[in-house]
Amino acid sequence: MHQQDHEEQALAITIGLLLLSGGSLLISCFTGPAAAFTLNAVPVLSAYTLPRLTRAFTLRRAVRRLLR
Fold first, then answer.
1. How much is the mean pLDDT over the chain?
2. What is the pTM of this model?
């Protein structure tokens, strides 16, 4: 079962990358390379930074409540 989970995850990542690259090519054809890069970089960067920012803001709020 554990091996099957890894295979399903690898398949999901592969499909996601194929969709991202195909979408990037289509957007680049219609809007230009700068807009295509921006439209593809924003979701990737937000998915990377959003959990860290949420954790930092939650920690700040908890510290502020403790100091009151």
1. 83
2. 0.46
Nearest-angstrom CA–CA distance, 24 and 44: 13
Q: How many domains does the chain have?
A: 1
pLDDT tens-digit map of 27-37: 888 888 888 88
Query: Three-state DSSP class for 1?
Result: coil
Contact 27, 39 (CB under 8 A): yes
SS3 68: coil
**Mapping DSSP to helix (H, G, I), strand (E, B) and coil, where does residue 7 land?**
helix
Residue 9: both structure tokens together? 């995850």
| Owner of token pair 């230009």 | 32
